[in-house]
Amino acid sequence: MRETNTAIIKAYDVRGLVPDEWDGADAYRIGAAFADLVEAPAIAVARDMRESSPGLVSAFADGVRDRGTEVIDAGLGSTDYLYFVSGSLGVPGAMFTASHNPAAYNGIKFCRAGAVPVGEHTGLDFIGSALRTGAPVVSVSPRGGYREVDLLEDYARHLRSLVGLDRIRPLTVVVDAGNGMAGLTVPLVLDHPGLDIIPMYFELDGTFPHHEADPMKPANTADLRARVVAEGADLGLAFDGDADRCFVVDERGRAVSPSALIALIAARELARVPGAAVVHNLITSTSAVEVIREAGGTPVRSRVGHSFVKALMAEHDAVFGGEHSGHYYFRDFWFADTGMLAALHVLAALGSERRPLSALLAEYDRYVSSGEINVRTSRPELALKAVEEAFAGSGAGIDRLDGLTVTLDDGAWFNLRASNTEPVLRVNVEAPAPDRAEALTGRVLAAIESAA
């Protein structure tokens, strides 16, 4: 029998290979532990289209019910659909997905009632301890009940109520669902007479036959970029596997920086709620921070990860939050992330004027970014130390809010952080000009290589 692998407990979710790293027996114990953690009458569950999801959900539900807690099964849906179920019903939730990871992975994202996040120090540590001790689950009587609900239409209606598309000009939109959950949710949410939706890979298939459901990697948006140009479309939208992240391609077939979208949406939300706070993670472009201030808002810097952003949003009553990875969070959506609502904002902004998307976003994209570079390393701390030593004494500002961030006197900066889900060191560099960004990136990568 395989030993329990508590390494599947990450900073803000459960994630691992099925069945090599976790299986139904682990899901059962996690379900019982989550029921003990939240002490609620009912827990909602939803799942993505991965082949392992139904079995894991069933085992998790058994663990929940054996602790006397009812299971509300919301069925297939995106992660933001699960947040909607949690928020609208006022119950804790568990979403079974491994997001952008390959087909062999699966995981669970948790929230308390009202879509309040469960993270490393707000419940995942409790669940990890329950796995580690291996104490048997004590069944209680009466056993918790089970019922199914379908709230997808309500979810779509709620999103459409938050961003109106009534006065937009006609738009042609290519959407790449990546065989993920956007194939189910896009036809519901973006059902509008002003939108001509051209679907790509809408068939739900957890084996991801066309490409990985990870739009952050340029190779995975190549088909979309080519199709936007071929169709003469106004823009393209790409979603990850659980459809909580949205990436945008402009009319030229060029990927739009998520930081530019953060700036655009922040400006729109601050026009509606003047003076509000906006949370951004520390890898977000300086452009977005400048736009937030120019729009009269207060930027709040966060660690990377949805549970950290959501917690800061609640603390500051922020109207909006964004991450470089394509996560967008909204006060009106229980401070939770929804790529679909971000897409609606982009469509509303573009549809309200005649300029193409590239021109609309030019004012929000002021600096040059390396994009996220992944460097495989088995000893990330040694690499971080080597890079810090390479820049020490140069007058650079250094902080360790999340990994290592170094800011230089000309405004250029970089961040190195170990991934929570993969054995890699993530490198992000930004500078005022292309040659400066290239030189700084080379210097950082050379320092990492020296440590190896």
Highlighted features:
alpha/beta, 452 residues, 22% strand, single chain, seven-stranded mixed sheet
Please indicate the percent range of residues in DSSP E strands (runs of 2 or more): 15-25%
Helix content: 25-40%
Shape: globular
Structural class: alpha/beta
Radius of gyration: 22 Å
Largest sheet: 7 strands, mixed
Q: What's the average pLDDT? A: 95
Q: pLDDT below 50 for ≥5 consecutive residues: which ranges?
A: none
Total number of helical segments? Answer: 14
Distance between the termini: 36 Å
Work out the number of β strands: 22
Give a structural overview.
This protein is an alpha/beta fold and 452 residues long. The chain contains 14 helices and 22 strands. It has helices spanning 24-38, 53-66, 79-89, 120-133, 152-162, 182-189, 222-231, 258-272, 286-294, 306-316, 339-351, 357-362, 380-391, 434-451; strands at residues 14-17, 42-47, 70-76, 93-96, 105-112, 116-117, 146-148, 171-176, 195-200, 235-239, 246-249, 277-281, 298-302, 320-322, 328-330, 336-337, 368-369, 373-376, 397-399, 404-407, 413-418, 424-431. The strands form 4 sheets. Strands 1, 2, 3, 4, 5, 6 and 7 form a 7-stranded mixed β-sheet that branches. Helix 1 (24-38) packs across helix 4 (120-133). The protein is globular and about 65 Å long.
Structure in a nutshell:
This protein is of the alpha/beta class and 452 residues long. It has helices at residues 24-38, 53-66, 79-89, 120-133, 152-162, 182-189, 222-231, 258-272, 286-294, 306-316, 339-351, 357-362, 380-391, 434-451; strands spanning 14-17, 42-47, 70-76, 93-96, 105-112, 116-117, 146-148, 171-176, 195-200, 235-239, 246-249, 277-281, 298-302, 320-322, 328-330, 336-337, 368-369, 373-376, 397-399, 404-407, 413-418, 424-431. It is globular and about 65 Å long.
